[in-house]
Design a protein that fits this description.
Layout (H helix, E strand, L loop, with lengths): L1 H5 L4 H13 L1 H11 L4 H30 L1 H30 L14 E4 L44 E4 L4 E6 L3 H6 L11 E5 L7
Antiparallel strand pairs: 1-2, 2-3, 3-4
């Protein structure tokens, strides 16, 4: 028996024990006490130290997982992606319509400047592309909007909606960003005057 106790611990057992302590803590402690010939105080100290570290890391890792794969956050980002696509299409349509317009009042079609429209309006024609919808520009000849209807915000509530503004000379569209990541990436970097909204247009200060 004494001869067995004096035999060195196989290298593979040492490697398995160390890796288990680092990545599979409870199993590593078991291997350490069964295989390793380290002094008892070393085993106890390692067990306590790794246990404390493990307890500290659990809430940190949990928070990272929640932020990274939070279903609600993923849904918000999906809606933000739809908003960015919508505003890009509307921006292209407005630019083409204004470029080809013969009406000096093209940015506030059939209405008086300044003008404004919101996708959350309860008016039945809010999606019309002929200038009577929430975008006050006649987009019917641009052929950019494939559905021949104006897009509206995915939520489209009293707080989350698309907004068009024009002073008769310039125009702006504001769309909300729900995800904090998208607010930082898009809303605060678009050079507009509202850090919480993504803004596009010829003048990003028209909407007040």
């Amino acid at each position: 028996m004494a001869a067995n106790q004096n035999q060195p611990v196989p290298t593979w057992k040492t490697v398995v024990t160390v890796l288990s302590l680092l990545f599979f803590f409870p199993l590593g402690v078991l291997f350490m006490f069964l295989w390793m010939k380290w002094p008892l105080w070393v085993k106890i100290l390692l067990s306590a130290g790794i246990a404390v570290l493990f307890l500290i890391m659990i809430p940190i890792l949990a928070a990272i997982v929640v932020v990274t794969i939070n279903p609600l956050e993923l849904t918000r980002r999906a809606r933000d992606a739809a908003r960015l696509s919508d505003v890009a299409n509307v921006q292209q349509a407005v630019n083409i319509a204004v470029e080809n317009a013969t009406d000096l009042n093209a940015l506030c079609y059939k209405t008086q400047a300044p003008c404004e429209g919101r996708s959350s309006s309860t008016e039945p024609d809010v999606k019309n592309i002929d200038g009577s919808g929430w975008v006050k520009v006649d987009l019917s000849k641009t052929k950019i909007l494939s559905t021949d209807l104006l897009p509206i915000d995915p939520v489209n509530s009293t707080e989350l909606y698309y907004r068009y503004c024009s002073d008769g000379k310039n125009w702006e569209i504001e769309v909300p960003m729900e995800s904090q990541q998208d607010k930082t990436k898009y809303a605060s970097q678009d050079k507009g005057d509202n850090p919480n909204l993504y803004e596009a247009g010829s003048d990003l200060t028209v909407c007040k």
